Amino acid sequence: MKENQHRENREEIRELLKRYENLKNGRQHSFIEEDAFEKIIDYFQENEDLTRASEAADFAMEQYPYSAILLIKKADILVASRNYKKALLILEQAELLDSGDINLYILKTDIFLALDQQEKAVVLLQEALALFEGEERLELLFELADVYDDYEEFDKVFDCLKLILEDDPTNEEALYKICFWTDFTGRNEESIRLHQQIIDEYPYSELAWFNLAASYQGLKLYEKAIDAYQYAITIDEKFDYAYRNMGDAYIRLRKYKEAIEALEKVNELAKPEDVIFEAIGHCYDKLKNFAQARFYYRKASHMRQDDSKLFYKIACTYFNEGQWESCCKQLDQAMKIHRLQSEYNLLMGECKLKLEQYKDAVQYFSNVVRVKPKNAAGWEALIRCLHAAGYFEEGLEQVQVAAEVTGNKPIFIFYKSAMLMALGKTKEALLQLEKGMERSPKLLKKFIELNPAVLQNQSVVDILARFKRKRSI
């Protein structure tokens, strides 16, 4: 049926073009109707032949000098050719003949925007809204929304879409767009009220339920969001975006099994995506099912091979299982892409420390403190490593530097005490331990982790007992 219609249209335009050429060249007396000229002009425009389209419009206007439609066609061609001022003059002529053609206002808007006259475009469209009803009014509101978008008045974009939905609550284009602009402008409460009204009237609108859910999600009301997404997928069981967002909401609630179920549904309904595989991997990671987490991280990395973060996430799963060599291999891959990323160097240093490859560990931890000198975590790792390797003199030097560059964090008082203790400078070490206990007694655990045997030193035990008594008084 469609093929027959297409063939008929093609034959009709071929006949019209033949008649047009004959009339233009004076080969025979022929008459072409006004609407036939429109089709000829449209044909040339669709084929991006603006020269012949302009020529046909001029010829048509000679035949029908009082046709507002043909004048508007000519103006449209001039706008496409960026001849804005001439187009505006022709539109003014067309307006005198017929001010009720919506294309007048659409084209004028395009011209004002091209001339960087946004205010004129806004005034024109606002005035035009009073002249039109129904579909034409909605078209003008969409046009006005686009103008506000171009000039970054984003709240007004939301306002236009809200007006459209108040007039036409099931308008799909507006429902799709307002979801984005609700999130962008943060007007979630208004969106909730609007979509609750739509649902009251149209309870089977899956898009309204989806937008309601997304607005709840924007307010971090994840339970309510999930309930609304459930309604959306009950109405449309193949609504993959609802499953996707529901998966995110479950992750926020730390309901990882439910999140996996929702995200697996996305994979069934839509083309596989790296972000979905990564999210499923994250859920298994949180459930401490590291083998499954790796499986999905690898799927994501096959689709996003230049993302070092995925290799790092795979490395973390191996680290959590105590597979230090495998962890190092993944970190090597990550660091081929981003060599000095502090997280990667930190984890590589921890692996080398576990493997008792102290010189390598020191090198990786040194990279961390060089890249992020004010970050205490890198310094802590470096000092722990130096202590484990027995490099106490160097450790003491690094403690002093770490304290200076990180703002004298109390952890480095404890580490200084540990280094002094290891160097046999017991009296000085005990003074530092007392100082540390006064500053932050909760950090004692890290001090003991460096060398648990320190609890066999009676002087240390006496200091800890004294501070314990102080706290209990």
- Under the CATH scheme, the architecture of the domain at 153-257 is Alpha Horseshoe
Largest sheet descriptor = none
How do the SSEs run, as a string of H and E?
HHHHHHHHHHHHHHHHHHHHHHHHHHH
Cα distance spanning the termini: 94 Å
Shape: elongated
Q: In total, how many beta strands?
A: 0
Rounded to an integer in angstroms, the radius of gyration calculated over CA atoms is: 36 Å
Output the number of helix runs: 27
Judged by helices, strands and strand pairing, the structural class is mainly alpha
Residue share in β-strands: under 5%
Look up the CATH topology of the domain at 153-257: Serine Threonine Protein Phosphatase 5, Tetratricopeptide repeat
CATH superfamily of the domain at 153-257: Tetratricopeptide repeat domain
CATH class assignment of the domain at 153-257: Mainly Alpha
Mean pLDDT: 90
Structural summary, described in words:
The longest helix has 23 residues, at 2-24. The protein contains 27 helices and no strands. Helices cover 79% and strands 0% of the residues. The radius of gyration is 36 Å and the shape is elongated. The protein has helices at residues 2-24, 34-46, 50-63, 68-80, 84-97, 102-114, 118-129, 134-150, 154-167, 172-185, 188-201, 206-218, 222-235, 240-252, 256-269, 274-286, 290-303, 308-320, 324-337, 342-354, 358-371, 376-389, 392-405, 411-422, 426-439, 444-450, 458-472. The model has no long low-confidence stretch (mean pLDDT 90). Among the domains are: 153-257, Alpha Horseshoe (Serine Threonine Protein Phosphatase 5, Tetratricopeptide repeat), CATH 1.25.40.10; 410-473, no CATH class. 38% of the residues are buried. With 473 residues, it is an all-alpha fold.
